[in-house]
Design brief:
Low-confidence stretches: 219-246
Number of domains: 2
Radius of gyration: 17 Å
Strand content: under 5%
Order of helices and strands: EHHHHEHEHHHHEEHHHHH
Shape: globular
Mean pLDDT: 86
Distance between the termini: 34 Å
Helix content: 40-55%
Length: about 250
């Protein structure tokens, strides 16, 4: 049995930046993942990242023989069994409440893209507006499909990611829309970029988030107890801002 101790949650599998994989997964996990994916033709880190980010809906199935350790072990283990936390993970700061937007409600982050082929019913419940743009789920190159098909009126033109997160969609903060837009446009997960000091700003207002990056990085490094993990804190925050629906 393979084993590894990842220093990041499973959404790294959607993060198209090999350097982030090295820094947060480490070569031990990368070698384990590469060995697990060798039957589908993966030979090195670049191939691993490419396969994972373009075939995200089937990649987790390759990890079923891997044993995970550390504070992220429970979530990685859950992913291999077809479960993952679908709430927001990025600590977008609060701004004064903006006007209600016409964009439809989304109740899942891009993490839903990591779920297996039998997850269509969950897509229908949590991200139906995006499912309508796809021929099937999981789909190859999901990010590319959405980039090409996402209507202009759903792109929050002229707003930064922080402003998108604070807009109101169906009475809730549009924080999940902000995460989807960041992933679609940048190819990386916003909370991971923030952790590494690489958050891509869309407008000046996004500096409100990037200015917090150093303190947040210190928090992520120093936190020791799983009960106080950033993932759980974000889960609580999202529940508070969505009426209990992550």
């Amino acid at each position: 049995m393979y084993a590894c101790r990842p220093q990041v949650d499973p959404t790294i599998l959607l993060h198209d930046d090999p350097r982030a994989w090295v820094e947060l997964l480490g070569w031990g996990c990368i070698e384990v993942f590469t060995s697990a994916a060798r039957p589908v033709g993966v030979k090195d880190l670049d191939g691993l990242v490419k396969y994972s980010t373009t075939r995200s809906g089937v990649f987790a199935g390759l990890l079923r023989g891997v044993e995970f350790f550390g504070k992220y072990a429970a979530e990685w283990g859950g992913l291999t069994r077809g479960r993952i936390y679908l709430g927001a993970r990025t600590p977008f700061p609060h701004l004064p409440v903006a006007a209600e937007r016409d964009e439809p409600v989304i109740l899942a982050s891009p993490a839903i893209a990591l779920l297996p082929p039998d997850s269509k019913r969950l897509w229908q419940k949590r991200a139906y507006v995006l499912l309508r743009l796809l021929s099937e789920v999981p789909v190859r190159n999901l990010r590319l499909h959405l980039s090409q098909r996402l209507p202009e009126e759903w792109r929050f033109q002229g707003l930064g990611y922080v402003e998108v997160a604070n807009a109101r969609c169906g009475g809730r903060r549009c924080i999940l829309w902000a995460e989807w837009l960041y992933w679609i446009e940048q190819g990386r997960m916003p909370h991971i970029d923030l952790r590494l000091g690489k958050f891509a700003e869309r407008t000046e207002r996004d500096k409100l988030l990037t200015s917090l990056a150093k303190d947040l990085k210190k928090y992520w490094i120093n936190v020791k107890k799983p009960a106080a993990s950033c993932w759980q804190l974000q889960r609580a925050e999202v529940a508070n801002n969505t009426g209990g629906v992550p």
